[in-house]
Write a structure and sequence with these properties.
Oligomer: single chain
CATH architecture of the largest domain: Sandwich
Radius of gyration: 30 Å
Number of strands: 8
Number of domains: 2
Helix content: 40-55%
CATH superfamily of the largest domain: Macroglobulin (MG2) domain
Order of helices and strands: HHHHHEHEEEEEEE
Structural class: alpha+beta
Largest sheet: 8 strands, antiparallel
Length: 266
């Protein structure tokens, strides 16, 4: 939007004012284009300074404004032209349309890259998630590295990872049946230590994270139904792939695992 908004306004106002003024002064097309180019830069400068979007964005907007005024001046006849009639020039018009499409597409891609797709847009544009008769969940082991961790927290996180590996707790199992949207499905895990003894009295929770929308994320607490066995009924709101993070806490120790699961359509 930092590019699309000022560039879109400039690419709309500059041609509009240009053709209006050229209708009044038919032989001063290039002078009008030059003046409009200078005025557009003068108008954009305070906005760019007050809400500085970055040098790359400013350079793009300035180039677009200058290019728009330059092309308009290019299609104008010189002052001493024999005919003052305004005609349609396919070449410059094609160039303008080409850059307009490039700017629009780049702005859309930058917006998606920085903000992501909304849930509705993802549902309309992306293919339907594949689902089969069997839903699989897997936990590849300890979380080796979380790319969202800040640099200042890495040492503490790395120490927690090493402590978790040294502890050697094991987490097994997952869904008891096929998870389906809108239906409660038992989610059960078994926690044991390195010798196979059950981990009792732990506080266990499962976070279900949706890639396309944080608003759909939810957390469920698992109750201990047998020694070292924890279970809760889970009902997801959307089909497809979810990320699952299981946290096991006991006596100040935290064991975390990350996995993936597929939720089927009803």
């Amino acid at each position: 939007m930092a590019v699309l908004l000022p560039a879109g306004i400039g690419m709309t106002l500059i041609p509009t004012l240009f053709f209006l003024l050229r209708w009044r002064f038919p032989t001063a097309g290039r002078q009008i284009a030059f003046i409009l180019g200078v005025l557009s830069l003068a108008a954009y400068a305070p906005y760019a300074i007050s809400a500085w979007p970055g040098l790359d964005v400013v350079a793009m907007v300035v180039a677009i404004l200058v290019m728009t005024a330059f092309i308009l001046g290019l299609i104008s006849p010189p002052r001493n032209a024999a005919s003052h009639k305004m005609g349609f020039h396919a070449g410059p018009a094609t160039i303008i349309a080409f850059f307009a499409v490039i700017i629009l597409l780049d702005s859309i891609f930058l917006t998606i890259a920085s903000r992501g797709l909304s849930e509705n847009a993802a549902r309309q544009l992306l293919p339907e998630p594949q689902s089969g008769p069997v839903a699989t969940s897997y936990f590849p082991g300890t979380v080796a590295h979380d790319y969202q961790e800040k640099v200042a927290q890495f040492e503490a996180y790395d120490a927690m990872r090493e402590e978790q590996q040294r502890r050697g707790w094991q987490v097994q199992r997952g869904w008891l049946g096929e998870p389906v949207v809108g239906e409660d499905t038992p989610f059960r895990i078994q926690v044991s230590d390195g010798d196979g003894a059950p981990i009792r009295g732990a506080e266990v929770s499962a976070q279900f994270l949706r890639f396309s929308s944080e608003s759909l994320d939810f957390t469920r607490r698992l109750e201990e139904i047998e020694p070292g066995i924890y279970q809760a009924d889970i009902s997801a709101s959307r089909p497809g792939r979810w990320e699952v993070i299981v946290n096991v806490r006991r006596d100040g120790e935290t064991h975390q695992l990350r996995g993936m699961t597929d939720i089927a359509k009803p």
